[in-house]
Design brief:
The structure is a homodimer.
Chain A: H1 7-25, E1 30-31, H2 33-40, H3 44-52, E2 58-59, E3 63-65, H4 66-77, E4 83-88, H5 92-99, E5 108-115, E6 124-125, E7 128-132, H6 136-142, E8 147-150, H7 154-166, E9 171-174, E10 187-190, H8 193-204
Parallel strand pairs in A: 4-5, 4-8, 5-7, 8-9, 9-10
Antiparallel strand pairs in A: 1-3, 2-3, 6-7
Helix pairs in contact in A: 1-4, 2-3
Chain A binds a DNA duplex through helix 3 and strand 2.
Chain lengths: 208, 208
DNA sequence: GTATGTGAACCACTTCACAGCA
DNA sequence: TGCTGTGAAGTGGTTCACATAC
């Protein structure tokens, strides 16, 4: 049953969760689909329909208990535990990822970082000892990590992804500008600012 | 007419363009929708349908001329010119964006960078003199920039976006973890690795 | 013969609208 | 009375399959 939930729905749940987190911090106890929708630019019906795939979390005539719904969403998404990640590629981009302070508070922890440059291997970046990428498989054998982050140039990215897949990584966050391929049991999401820019220009190119 | 083209189609065109660029570099002159689809994980029908919104670029029995189709796509997307961008937020993330070497080759140039931290204002980062964010509007009055990049913390991001909109920016690349709001004539795309991670965990949380 | 271009069929997601419950 | 939960209707996007063109 859970397999028939549209992926777009799953993609929206973390957005709802983030808004609820904010409301909770502000001390709000209850929110309805109307207000939540306004904050997120989503229709109230969308929110109610999305949530209905997983249960009945609201109270008619009242709305949703903020803390309760947030807990439910975290449960659904698997965010009640910590997730370990490995990073491959410690160039400019990789360093920024290591330094980024937005992962840890959400339970995503980078436990190892790899590169293929002898000048970088052995150095320490943001508290992480950089290891040779040749040891990726060995490291993943002894230290468990479910998620891989790819921050290498496009030319070597698919190879890195293949290694990660072979080592049992279950999800990949790909920063490389390629159409990455992975078997169906491995999830991939691309972070690709250039693609984002290149599609927005279509809409603004003839403005004013 | 161009207004009725689905946004998903526009989002795929840069992906096609990137693949064509690669094929061109490899010296390939012709490609068919079958092969292009295999490389990108897209069905051939999808590609043909997408392209049909804009014209007839192929030859039956043969396929598409790589260089020709690439030119057409660049024309359609508005990628035959340079685009100027302003960056607001020169923390860790902003520095990585300034240092990123993937924008310039694609014709996206950061022409000014702003921050609100007196310790950062006046310093030079990657060749950019960092200016006070108070001067954003004034700078945009004299130096034209169509695109804004937001790399500030979530709490201040919406304010920055509002300023950019007020100053006539037409598209925004938002790295802040918020549900950003902008008027319909301003395009926004979010770059949000945490959301990407938080949705992938749904699929992998019960694996093996 | 081969691969495009495209109406038509299909499928998926969104929105509607209201019954049902607090 | 107010807002959720949800079948049903509507909308939008994808895939099919074949006529068309090289």
């Amino acid at each position: 049953m859970a397999l028939e939930i549209p992926e777009v729905v799953i993609d929206r749940l973390p957005v709802y969760g983030r808004a609820l987190d904010l409301l909770k911090q502000q001390g709000r106890e209850v929110v309805n689909s109307q207000e939540l929708g306004e904050r997120l630019g989503v229709t109230p019906a969308q929110i109610r329909k999305d949530l209905s795939y997983f249960g009945r979390f609201g109270k008619q005539g009242r709305g949703y208990n903020v803390a309760r719904l947030l807990d439910e969403l975290n449960q659904i998404l698997g965010l009640t535990r910590e997730w370990s990640m490995v990073l491959v590629g410690v160039g400019q981009l990789g360093r920024a990822i290591l330094a980024y302070d937005g992962f840890t508070p959400q339970g995503f922890r980078i436990i190892a970082a790899f590169d293929d440059d002898p000048n970088i291997i052995g150095t320490t970046v943001d508290g992480h000892l950089i290891t040779s990428v040749d040891e990726l498989a060995a490291t993943l054998l002894e230290r468990h990590a479910e998620i891989g982050i790819v921050a290498v140039p496009g030319a070597t990215a698919q190879g890195v992804i293949d290694s990660m897949v072979a080592s049992g990584v279950k999800a990949i966050l790909n920063y490389a500008p390629i159409a990455a391929q992975a078997p169906p049991h491995v999830r991939i999401k691309d972070i690709d600012p250039v693609l984002a820019l290149q599609s927005m220009t279509f809409y603004i190119k003839d403005q004013d």
